[in-house]
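Researcher: Next entry in the queue.
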Amino acid sequence: MKFCTHCGAQIHEEAVICVKCGCSVAPPKPVVNNSDDNVMQLIVKIFLILGCVACGWLIIPLAWCLPITIAIFNRMRDNKPISTGLKVCALIFVNLIAGICLLCMDDENKINI
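Model: Structure for this entry, 113 residues:
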């Protein structure tokens, strides 16, 4: 048996929440250093913009380059996961390097809403 760190009640060893006070007794998850992810996001943004600029002289490709780029930028800003389909579309239609970087990025730590 172990004890709740908030109210001192006796709880089971595997308990995650104290039945008396309702507080979490699980050890906090370690904070993941996402500085590498921030650098990867910056690289992706740069190459997506370069891809849109490169397609700029061909007006029709901008019809799919801009929406893909804007959707990815919005998902990054809102800290939401980017779907594999959107990553592949960025790879094929916007910029090869940005698409590869997106596919290599870790989306596990993103909030799934």
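Model: Strands lie at 2-3, 10-11.
Researcher: Noted, moving on.
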